[in-house]
Design brief:
Blueprint (H helix, E strand, L loop, with lengths): L1 H6 L3 H38 L2 H20 L9 H4 L4
């Protein structure tokens, strides 16, 4: 199979398999429909609106900003220490 792919033989079959997989996924997704989409969207919104999740996101953002602000200047023009030089 590897040799066939390397020489170009069998590529038509691979394209056909990809197209078939795409078509099957599309049909199955369409059958799930709007109702399932709404269920997933509501679950996401409930999770994203959770105080626990909001607190965790805030802590991660703070940690990343502290790491960025505490980083030594890199000398490549990026980073907080170099912004003062451009005033």
């Amino acid at each position: 199979m590897l040799a066939a792919c390397a020489t170009g033989y069998g590529s038509g079959m691979s394209k056909l398999m990809v197209a078939g997989a795409f078509a099957a996924g599309y049909v199955l997704g369409a059958k799930a429909g709007r109702e399932r989409y709404e269920e997933i969207r509501q679950a996401y919104q409930k999770l994203a609106g959770s105080p626990t999740v909001k607190d965790a996101v805030s802590k991660v953002e703070d940690k990343v900003m502290n790491m960025y602000n505490d980083a030594p200047p890199s000398g490549n023009g990026a980073g907080p220490a170099n912004t003062a030089e451009r005033t």
